[in-house]
Amino acid sequence: MYPPVARSVRRRGVAYLAPQAAGNTWYPDPFTAPVEPNEPGRTSALRAIDDATATAEAAGVARDRIVVHGFSEEACLASESVARNPDRYGGLVALGGRLIGESIAPDEYEGDLEGTPVFIGVAMAIPTSLLNAPTSLRAFSNGSAGT
């Protein structure tokens, strides 16, 4: 059974893995809060994304065919996961989210994302999604997580 969002973009040969948040929330405070109050939820959520990626790879899907995506909290987690596990992905799509934390220091993210398409979408209707969006983009610029 496809989740509702997957039904609208259903394609033959495409699998959708959608981890479920423990207690239906990924982390308790806003993504713009300092990281510490969002622990251990943040770390648990990032592990769920890592596990989904590992599941896809174990099924024979190469990482450069995996698109990590999310909306709102999930967009923040998708961004954070890709930035902290740099490699050539099929893509990153972050809608209404960005890297997690009160402030973003692009130099804290090291590694190479060269060739990975990145789309970070923000909405005027969700003003918090605009906060530090340019800094998030810089963290993914030039195909590397830390440049």
UniProtKB/TrEMBL annotation:
Q: Where is the Phospholipase/carboxylesterase/thioesterase domain?
A: 26-107
InterPro entries under this entry?
AB_hydrolase_fold, PLipase/COase/thioEstase
This chain's source organism reads Halapricum desulfuricans
Known Pfam families for this protein?
A: Abhydrolase_2 (PF02230)
For this UniProt entry, the molecular function terms from Gene Ontology, in alphabetical order, are: hydrolase activity
Highest taxon above the source species: Archaea
Q: What is this protein's record name? A: Putative esterase
